[in-house]
């Protein structure tokens, strides 16, 4: 269904570049169906993609239609909401739900499919490189291939991989490759791991409403407190949904991290080079995906810098033309608004600059 022309966002003096937009090739869904057919299925995966892939609900049908299309349907939706460019990533959980061998084998296929779509629509689509953290060495090589062969300049990792986090040094070959190739990592939510999902699932709070932010914020904090960003000081990590609320916790995170280190309560909590809030300001870029809230955007701009906050829609999971109208209407300096919608994304993802 198209948005009536009268309701579409107006022409503006900036390009709207949406930076957390998802796709799913049919080949990946075929693998998912095989996983779901097994007796022992990860409960978070079953309740997330298992639901969307099987539900007859209007929302689920819209999401699956949007995920699968990399041509007319997607571009029509972009036109309806005034989005000039989508930065597209393999939807969660991507290959991270697969076994190691399947994940490593399928990842290049997913990236090739996306790269071909970008070639078909070079002024509308930008791609992120998917990797299989199950094999950090293979993931590092795929980052190199994505940059040098496919022309992509960012990486998506859908949070934990079978309950394991990038704070573990065994994954740091991925950080090394990302830093070396100047490819920011978009740390995107995943269904909660088995070890923490049940209290959320029982209340219907496991997904985007709350669980995703809790789990992905935890992941980002684990990276900050692990020392990884002292080892890789130029690494840039993108987190969505207004920073998974971390900017609003910054004061308490700084205070309690220092207090916990001083107490020597945990062997895992060692001194690090900066405060958590300082890593946010030097190593994190935040998108507003799914949060069309002027006050939160301005607070975050003030906290980490106007040059570190970007626009995202979260298509097709969140697809609302009224949110674009709301963000266009923000009372914000024109240069800051252009940075939010356009120029920050151009810099971060190496998108050629163009006037709206």
Q: How much strand content do the residues show?
A: 5-15%
Task: Report the order of strands and helices.
Answer: EHHHHEHEEHEHEHHHEHHHEHEHH
The CATH superfamily name is: Metal-dependent hydrolases
**Which radius of gyration do the C-alpha atoms yield?**
19 Å
Please outline the major beta sheet.
6 strands, parallel
Strand tally? 9
Overall geometry comes to globular
Number of domains: 1
Average residue-wise pLDDT: 97
Tell me the CATH architecture: Alpha-Beta Barrel
Oligomer: single chain
Descriptive account of the structure:
The chain has 356 residues and is of the alpha/beta class. The protein has one domain: Alpha-Beta Barrel (TIM Barrel), CATH 3.20.20. The protein contains 16 helices and 9 strands. The chain has helices at residues 26-36, 43-54, 58-68, 72-81, 100-120, 136-148, 172-180, 198-202, 211-226, 228-231, 241-244, 246-263, 276-283, 294-304, 321-328, 334-349, and strands spanning 17-23, 85-90, 125-127, 129-130, 155-157, 185-187, 237-239, 284-287, 309-310. It has a 6-stranded parallel beta sheet with strand order 4-5-6-7-8-9. Strand 2, helix 5 and strand 3 (125-127) form a beta-alpha-beta unit. The radius of gyration is 19 Å and the shape is globular. The model has no long low-confidence stretch (mean pLDDT 97).
What descriptive keywords fit this protein?
single chain; alpha/beta; TIM Barrel; six-stranded parallel beta sheet; three-stranded parallel beta sheet; 9% strand; globular
């Amino acid at each position: 269904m198209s948005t009536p022309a009268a309701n579409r966002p107006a022409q503006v003096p900036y390009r709207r570049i949406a930076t957390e937009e998802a796709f799913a090739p049919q080949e990946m869904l075929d693998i998912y169906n095989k996983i779901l057919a097994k007796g022992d299925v990860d409960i978070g995966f079953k309740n997330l993609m298992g639901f969307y892939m099987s539900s007859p609900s209007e929302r689920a049908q819209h999401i699956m239609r949007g995920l699968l299309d990399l041509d007319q349907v997607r571009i029509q939706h972009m036109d309806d909401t005034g989005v000039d460019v989508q930065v597209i990533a393999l939807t969660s959980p991507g290959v991270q739900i697969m076994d190691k061998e399947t994940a490593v084998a399928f990842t290049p296929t997913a990236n090739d499919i996306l790269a071909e779509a970008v070639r078909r629509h070079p002024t509308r689509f930008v791609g992120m490189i998917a990797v299989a953290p199950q094999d950090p060495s293979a993931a590092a090589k795929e980052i190199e291939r994505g940059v040098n062969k496919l022309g992509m300049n960012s990486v998506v990792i859908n949070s934990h991989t079978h309950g394991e986090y990038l704070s573990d040094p065994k994954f740091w070959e991925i950080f090394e490759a990302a830093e070396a190739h100047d490819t920011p990592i978009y740390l995107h939510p995943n269904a909660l791991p088995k070890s923490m999902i049940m209290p959320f699932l029982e209340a219907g709070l496991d997904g985007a409403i709350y669980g995703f932010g809790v789990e992905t914020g935890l992941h980002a904090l684990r990276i900050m407190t692990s020392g990884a960003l002292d080892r890789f000081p130029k690494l840039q990590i993108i987190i969505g949904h207004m920073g998974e609320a971390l900017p609003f916790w910054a004061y308490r995170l700084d205070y309690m991290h220092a207090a916990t280190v001083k107490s020597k309560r945990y062997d895992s909590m060692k001194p690090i080079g900066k405060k958590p809030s300082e890593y946010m300001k030097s190593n994190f870029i935040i998108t507003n995906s799914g949060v069309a809230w002027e006050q939160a955007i301005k607070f975050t701009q003030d906290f980490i810098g106007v040059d570190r906050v970007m626009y995202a829609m979260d298509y097709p999971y969140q697809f609302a033309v009224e949110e674009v109208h709301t963000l266009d209407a923000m009372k914000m300096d024109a240069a800051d608004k252009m940075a939010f919608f356009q120029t920050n994304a151009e810099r971060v993802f190496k998108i050629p600059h163009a006037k709206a």
